[in-house]
């Protein structure tokens, strides 16, 4: 059943929209605070749709994400109990927050670098860095390095692959989509 390929085509059209960089900036910013969808979901198709602007898109995503990280840090530092804690409970992130605190105790600033580059939920670590009252300047520098590395890597891979990669991805998108759904269901069942 081909339900993912029409969506893929639509996403590529949206990615070429003149306001797409603004949407990317907003998404990157809020993803660093609370948004559950990773920025790469928008950055990758934008870089595929307009490879000549891939580096610019990576810069937009990086700057907006690090600024969002600063807001997440401030929320954790200044408004944890009245604002952040109820939101964490509503989203069911209590275990993630506890894990993040444990990792901060064990690895310090290096956990921010890991979270800013990897698929770990960066937002949890921005807020936790504030809660743990980490030094702000090192937090910002490590966030900048990790986010830039991640977003420039995504943009670079899409730019390198270009039209060939877009066509190859379109060819396999339904298989990839169903595989992702099956993996998500399996992960849910395993963690339950």
UniProtKB/TrEMBL annotation:
Coiled coil segments of this chain: none
Keywords: Membrane, Transmembrane, Transmembrane helix
The organism's place on the tree of life at top rank: Bacteria
Membrane-spanning parts: 57-80, 100-122, 134-155, 175-191
Residue ranges annotated for the VTT domain, each copy included: 37-158
InterPro entries xref list: DedA_domain (IPR051311), VTT_dom (IPR032816)
One GO CC term on file: plasma membrane
PANTHER family the record matches: ALKALINE PHOSPHATASE LIKE PROTEIN, DEDA FAMILY PROTEIN
Protein's name according to its UniProt entry: DedA family membrane protein
Protein source organism: Gallaecimonas xiamenensis 3-C-1
């Amino acid at each position: 059943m081909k339900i993912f390929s029409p969506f893929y085509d639509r996403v590529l059209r949206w990615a070429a929209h003149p306001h797409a960089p603004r949407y990317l900036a907003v998404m990157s910013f809020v993803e660093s605070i609370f948004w559950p969808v990773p920025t790469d979901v928008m950055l990758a198709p934008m870089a595929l749709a307009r490879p000549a602007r891939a580096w610019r898109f990576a810069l937009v995503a990086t700057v907006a994400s690090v600024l969002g990280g600063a807001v997440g840090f401030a929320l954790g530092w200044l408004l944890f109990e009245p604002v952040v804690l109820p939101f964490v409970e509503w989203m069911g992130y209590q275990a993630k927050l506890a894990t993040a605190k444990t990792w901060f105790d064990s690895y310090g600033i290096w956990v921010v670098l890991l979270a800013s580059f990897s698929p770990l939920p960066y937002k949890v670590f921005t807020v936790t860095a504030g809660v743990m009252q980490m030094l702000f300047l090192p937090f910002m520098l490590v966030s900048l390095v990790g986010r830039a590395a991640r977003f420039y890597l995504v943009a670079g891979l899409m730019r390198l692959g270009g039209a060939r990669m877009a066509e190859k991805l379109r060819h396999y998108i339904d298989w990839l989509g169903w595989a992702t759904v099956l993996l998500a269901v399996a992960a849910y069942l395993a963690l339950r």
